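Running this now, will post back.
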Amino acid sequence: MTWDVNKAVTHLKNHAKSQSQGYCAKYVREAIQAGGISLLGPRPTSAKDYGPFLKSAGFTEYSSVPGGYKAGDIAVIQNPDAQHKHGHMQMYSGSQWISDFKQKNFWPGSIYTEKKPSYKIYRME
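Update: finished.
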């Protein structure tokens, strides 16, 4: 099965809540699978550790993306502090970032906005 970004984004939009549920990696992983990508093998425990897992599924890693973000891009964000030890994972819908909730902007919360931890973008090409 090939990558269908519209199915992935639609799945995420339809399942995202109005505020964080604490399951960003699960929601984004399920959206990726709804888009036709099999994510086999043991999954990372933390969202921040999904980079190699996404690469093994065929996603390309970027530090910055040429031409800006596209629908289906996934951001894997490192943890900003010990309280948020699992980091964050989110997908771009084409107009907003969504994880387990519909985010107001790229950074999923005030501590992320303040600390701006490192992140990578993953794109299926």
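The two ends are 14 Å apart (CA to CA). More later if anyone needs it.
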